[in-house]
Amino acid sequence: MTLPASRIDRMLADARARLRRLPARDVPAALTRGAVLVDIRPQAQRHREGDVPAALVIERNVLEWRCDPTSDARLPQAVGDDVEWVVLCSEGYTSSLAAAALQDLGLHRATDVIGGYHALKAEKVLV
């Protein structure tokens, strides 16, 4: 097995090895079972690419504070460590790192969408 070339590639591979990533087609079922879909794309990117009406928008720079049930800055959805946070970015790279960061906080069900927003759009799911 060949290791990824850069440190960030290794970090991404390590993050993804811990996640049970969701294919875009499985996102509606996750929402039905109570998962919280979180769109971490910056406003300019959401404006350019499109919104996901079913998603809660939390930009990446405040994600951990909003999802941590022990944080004073938590959202009402952050009720405990068992919340299934499904993180969405544009292509599924930043979201993998973000979901791993949520797992590091103890949010063990955090994951992301394989292929991100572009995969949702290609599958015609939620967009």
Automatic annotation (TrEMBL):
Residues 31-125 form the Rhodanese domain. InterPro entries: Rhodanese-like_dom, Rhodanese-like_dom_sf. Gene3D superfamilies: Rhodanese-like domain. It comes from the Bacteria. This is Rhodanese domain-containing protein. It comes from Mycolicibacterium pulveris.
